[in-house]
Amino acid sequence: MKMRLLINLVFATVVALAVSSCLKDGDEKVYTAAEEILLREAYLDSLVAKGHDIDTTANQVYYVIREEGEGDFAKSGDTLIVGYAGYFIDGVLFDSSELHYSDGKMEFVLEGEKSRMILGWEEGLKKMNKGAEFQFVIPSGQAYGSTGWGSIPPYQTLIFVTKLYDIKPS
Fold this sequence. Notes:
- By secondary structure, this protein is an alpha+beta fold.
- The protein has one domain (2-168): Roll (Chitinase A, domain 3).
- It has helices at 2-21, 33-49, 97-100, 119-125, and strands spanning 55-56, 62-67, 70-73, 79-88, 93-96, 106-109, 129-130, 133-138, 158-168.
- α1 (2-21) packs across α2.
- The N and C termini lie far apart (45 Å).
- Strands 1, 2, 4, 5, 6, 8 and 9 form a seven-stranded antiparallel sheet that branches. Strands 3-7 form a two-stranded antiparallel sheet.
């Protein structure tokens, strides 16, 4: 197991260096589907090596419970108040609620199929209750897929650290 972890970490590092060395300043890192999988596996292995327990949703969204919450779990139709930071798998911050809201908290309705949120984040939020803090590892298939969106390139596994401050039931 340790040898597999070491091999995955070394390979992921080599891939990341090879890709990043070809970039000009301001270019986004673009991975293939195969590179995304290798980088994600190495990232997950590194979390396990640090002693984190990783759970998985039905659609392969990985999550680490950083802080337990209490009460009912979020569901479609509830209004949620969250704080979040979104990172690329290489640790670069691409979005945060602190960039958009003076108190760092975003309020929105968890709308299920009508949602404008990425599928992976929405699915992960339903695993949370008030006061919980999770780290989500969301494969591109549950985010922006093979096309990307805005500043997010194709085949990007996204990392979200999310704090659920409150749930207002529907």
